[in-house]
Each structure stands twice: as structure tokens, then as C-alpha cells.
UniProtKB/TrEMBL annotation, chain A:
PROSITE patterns: ABC_TRANSPORTER_2. Pfam families: ABC_tran. This is ABC transporter ATP-binding protein. The keyword Translocase applies. It comes from the Bacteria.
Amino acid sequence: MSERAISITNLSHTYPDGTPGLRGISLDIIRGESVGVIGPNGAGKTTLLLHLNGIFMSKNGNVEILGKEIRKENIKGIRRSVGLVFQDPNDQLFMPTVFDDVAFGPLNMGYSEAEVRQCVARALDWVGMTGYEPRSPHHLGVGEKKRIAIATVLAMTPEILVIDEPTANLDPGSKWSLIELLRGLSITKIIATHDLELVRVLCQRTIVLDKGRVITDGTTKHILVDKPLLCAHELAPPNAT
Amino acid sequence: MMAMVGLAVALFLVFISRIPFGFVLKHLARVSIFIFPLCVLILFTYHQGDEIARFYFLTVTSGGIEHACLIAVRALAAVILIFPLIGTMRFDVAIKALGKLKVPNKLVQMLIFTYRYIFVFIEEVQRMFRALTSRGFTGGMNGRTLRATGRLIGMLLVRTLERAERVYNAMVSRGYEGNLGTLVEFKIGGGDILKAAILIAIAIALNVF
Ligand SMILES: Nc1ncnc2c1ncn2[C@@H]1O[C@H](COP(=O)(O)OP(=O)(O)OP(=O)(O)O)[C@@H](O)[C@H]1O
Ligand SMILES: [Mg+2]
């Protein structure tokens, strides 16, 4: 049982304006797995990810992280073990310098100054951005911002990494170097994306989501060759055969 | 006379702090809008010494000229003196210094976010204006453009709120609980105290002489 990193049962979410975000999602993710969550725009990918560290807490359904149900009392621990990287790095990088941004999480965890400095140095090293500490996030390129955004989360040494659209807006060069970076991280990964190439190289398992429901859940190898399935959910060009 | 020296010293400080003079001039021009009318008023109302000129009921005296010049030079010197002070500091360091000066954390957070998102906000405005212009929007004051501008402002408000929510989510998911921690890498050195002392001395001298 402790093998399970994430366990979701019958999770539904409705936005305040009545839009259904998720309708009865159930899935388990094993420790060390790398899982792709694909689906068209508005499928509910972002909504699902926001449930994984308690930004959204639904009364309908149940989310367990590392065997513990998410509750108000243990939210701090949950957020330490689930690192969430947002789609737009401008939302993730809100401090005046890269150093402050990466130090933000460790400082909130109550680490000492020496520990914080060590976390920042290590996280920036992992994403290959050592030396960027005094830079202002606003003036960085999109690829650099993405890496720093990942560093801000890695600085908290999470056990599960959850990333929303890591390769959106990246040129092919930055995209592939980011994919390499992610491949080098040996923790549990959940990656929401439209990018089938990314899923192909990074994820052994793929979950297809549409209209708030799990359509299929299986090995990437099988799902990526199922053209009718991909077409039906706007993940491949309509004329692909 | 002292005021002139003060002005010279202030300009010298701007020079050695390598702030572009164009930047200083632009801001001086704005300040002059306030200084100039004041000097004109003093010129005609301050009466002392020989009468130099008379236009109908207005008289100008040598004392008046002297006084108007003194005020102008003093004000300009005081403004110029600000530039080496704030023009050479990094904004993020200044914010941290504020935190150390016991400025409330809420206020410091507001400054940090204003500084970080002002560029993002400006870019968003520019993008939206470009989109409008490319669909034939031209400025002006008729009902149609005013309506379009109104909608634009409404959209901006909504986008800003949505962004604020996403940023807040990002903060919360990294353990934010209301207090913004920064490692203050701000140290006061002997050189800083000396520089501060020089600036304060000039400022006081400007007031006294
Ligand atoms: N704040 C919100 N208020 C109301 N409805 C929302 C909100 N955010 C998302 N939705 C709706 O919830 C549904 C799921 O959205 P979600 O953002 O999770 O999709 P997604 O799979 O991440 O899409 P994308 O690929 O475009 O990022 C959509 O129908 C969307 O319109
Ligand atoms: Mg999304």
C-alpha cells in the first residue's frame, strides 16, 4: 500500500460558476512512476493538478498523497512532498530576484539560513541555472523562466513532481533540453500536456482526460498508436491514420 | 553663494554616480513646473533693496531677484541630490532594506509585487492595445472608442484578478502562510555611512545658507 504515491477515488469538482471541472476521477499512481496526463483544452488537466496539493479541496471524492488523505491539518506536509509547477512561469516567479524566488519555499518550511542557501544552490544546479541568483525573473527568456520555476519547487525536495504544460511556448531547442532535464530527475512525475512527443520520451504511462473524465489509462506505447482515440479527443490531426 | 556650491556638488555627485544626465534633466523639467511659478511669485512680491523695474503696479527689487534665484537654485540642488541617492540602488535591495527598517511586512509585500508585476501588467496592456489597433481602433473621444476603452479596462481588471489568484495559488503551494520571508543580504558598510553623512550634510547646508 505504501507503494502508492497518489490515490484518487471518485473525485469531482465544479467551479463556482457551475462549470464542471472534473467528474468522478479515480486513479492510482505508484511511486517512481512518470505519468502523462493528456487531453484537449478544457479537459480538466489543470483542475486535476490543483487537487494534488490541496489548492482545491473537494468535498466530492478523496485524494490521498503517500497514503495520507489531504486535510487542513496536514496540508503543510503535503505541500512539502508534492511540488507543483504552474503553467505560466510568470505566476510561479513572483519575487524580485531568482534567488528570492527559489528560497521562498525553503524559507516557508522554516529552514535555517545556511540550509536555505544550500537548497537554492542545489536546486539551481539541478536545472542548470547556477549563477542566475541575482537576476530578475522578468528579464529572463521563457525557457530560462521554466527552469527556474522548476527549481523553485525542487528546492523543497518534493517526493512527487507535478508539472502543468512544461513545454508550452518553448522553441524546439529549449523544449528538448527541458525534456532531458526532466528525464534526469528520478522522482515520481505527473505531467499534464498536449505534447505527445514529450509523453513518448518521458512517460511510461498515459492518462487521457476529456470533459473531466478519464477516457483511457494505459501504457504510452499503446495509447500513442491508437490514432482513432487521439483524433476523437483532439490530440492528433483529424486526417491522421 | 552657498546654494550655488550646493548645486555644483549635487551635479558632481550625479556625475560620479554615472546616472545619465538626460534622465536627470527629464525629471528636472517636471519639477521645474512647480519651481518656476513660485520664483515668478517671489520675484514680484519680495521687496528689498533697490527698485530695478516697475510694470504698472508690479515692482521688482534687487532683493527679490536674489531671493528668487536662491529658491530656484536651492530647490534644484535638493532635487538633484536625490538622484545619486535612489538612482544607484537596486530596487530589490531597497525593498529588503525597508523590511529591515521595520516597515510592516504587508507593505513590503505590496511593493515587491508591484515591482515584479508592473512590467507584466504593462505588457498585457500593450498586447491588448495592439490587438485593438490591428482591428482598426484609433484613439479619440467618440462614443465608440470610449466604449472600446471601457471594455479594455474591464478585461484588464478581470485578467489582473485571475493572475492574482494564480500567483496566490503558486505561493500557497510553496507553503506561504501570510509572511514573506527573504534572506536579507543587506549590510551597512562604513562607506555607506560616510556617503549618507555627506548627502545629509549637503541637504542641511542647502537649508541653512
Ligand atoms: N476559474 C474557473 N472558473 C470557471 N471555470 C473554469 C475555471 N478554470 C477552468 N474552468 C473550466 O473548467 C474546465 C477544465 O479546465 P482546465 O483548466 O482544468 O482544463 P485544461 O485541461 O487544463 O485545459 P488547457 O489545456 O487549456 O490548459 C474547462 O471547461 C474550463 O473552462
Ligand atoms: Mg491547463
